[in-house]
């Protein structure tokens, strides 16, 4: 994994691992790489980036399967004990998620992990910032180009993740906003049992049956999410077509309550409860049809 280098954000090249390297070996090497990236940023006068990187270290307790501090950056962080987990959730973020905004992404992953562990201790959450996300205010967010590049990384990652997790583990993909475009283009193996699209602008597909997965496909959108006002059209490669919460798309609906676009994983919300229920294989509350 790599990010485009930037002369304004110096950082070491990412650590390289042998195939089959154990998670704890990856954690140690990536934490050292992160610390070096913070030192280099500080020396270059990039104190804001350095502070954000030091926060990511989590006092030396962070567990990164991958880390690249160059440019906008990439990071794949694990919450929980991956090697014993039989319920593993991969969070795929949307636009404007970078190392500089990472803490809000991490907060959602922590909230989900705490919610899952309250019912099922053998669970783990993986925050997958494994691609260069588009800017919310940009032309790239209107096309699938970044999503196609990301899907080519995410699919093989899921295969490797299955081998790192506990025996017989079930994987779930939770895909937020533009991340749902990424997931909709990702070929998944049999270990992925659920794919959840939330806060989605559309996927580019006309129906859930068109997605390259055998997983159950779910969709939900909060009543306070502005993305519900985005036109669900696709013209000349611009836009993403059918709304995933439209019954015609064919996804399983779940209730997301009053969630705004960035609120789905906040503690105590109906959306978080129902996302956890999907991951754990219990029955989430159904969505009330939108007027």
Characterization of this structure:
By secondary structure, this protein is an alpha/beta fold. It is 30% helix and 15% strand. It contains six helices and eight strands. It has helices spanning 23-43, 47-57, 102-119, 145-164, 178-183, 270-280, and strands spanning 64-68, 74-79, 87-92, 123-129, 170-176, 192-198, 216-220, 252-253. It has an eight-stranded mixed β-sheet. A hairpin with a 5-residue loop joins strand 1 (64-68) and strand 2 (74-79).
Number of strands: 8
Task: Point out poorly predicted stretches.
Answer: 1-7
Task: Report strand order across the widest sheet.
Answer: 1-2-4-3-5-6-7-8
Gross morphology: globular
Largest beta-sheet details = 8 strands, mixed
Distance between the termini: 44 Å
Mean pLDDT: 92
Order of helices and strands: HHEEEHEHEHEEEH
Number of helices: 6
Report the C-alpha radius of gyration, rounded: 18 Å
**Strand percentage:** 15-25%
- Structural class designation: alpha/beta
- What is the percent of helical residues? 25-40%
Briefly summarize what is shown.
The protein is α/β, with parallel strands linked by helices and 291 residues long. The protein has 6 helices and 8 strands. The model is unreliable at 1-7 (pLDDT under 50).
């Amino acid at each position: 994994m790599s990010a485009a280098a930037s002369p304004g954000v110096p950082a070491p090249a990412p650590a390289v691992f042998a195939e089959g390297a154990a998670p704890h070996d990856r954690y140690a090497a990536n934490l050292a790489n992160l610390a070096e990236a913070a030192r280099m940023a500080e020396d270059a006068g990039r104190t804001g980036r350095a502070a954000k990187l030091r926060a990511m270290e989590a006092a030396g307790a962070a567990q990164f399967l991958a880390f690249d501090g160059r440019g906008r950056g990439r990071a794949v962080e694990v919450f929980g004990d991956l090697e014993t987990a039989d319920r593993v959730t991969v969070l795929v973020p949307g636009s404007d998620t970078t190392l500089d905004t990472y803490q809000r992404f991490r907060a959602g992953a922590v909230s989900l992990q705490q919610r899952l562990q309250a019912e099922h201790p053998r669970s783990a959450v993986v925050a997958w910032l494994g691609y260069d996300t588009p800017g919310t205010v940009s032309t790239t967010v209107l096309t699938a180009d970044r999503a196609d590049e990301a899907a080519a990384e995410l699919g093989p990652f899921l295969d490797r993740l299955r081998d790192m997790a506990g025996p017989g583990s079930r994987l779930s993909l939770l895909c937020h906003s533009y991340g749902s475009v990424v997931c909709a283009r990702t070929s998944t193996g049999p270990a992925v049992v659920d794919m959840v699209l939330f806060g989605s602008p559309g996927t580019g597909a006309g129906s859930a049956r068109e997605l390259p997965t055998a997983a159950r496909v779910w969709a939900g959108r909060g009543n306070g999410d502005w993305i519900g006002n985005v036109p669900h059209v696709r013209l000349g490669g611009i836009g993403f077509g059918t709304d995933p919460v439209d019954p015609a798309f064919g996804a399983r609906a779940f209730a997301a309550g009053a969630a705004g676009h960035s609120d789905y994983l906040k503690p105590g919300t109906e959306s978080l409860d129902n996302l956890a229920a999907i991951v754990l294989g219990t029955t989430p509350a159904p969505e009330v049809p939108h007027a």
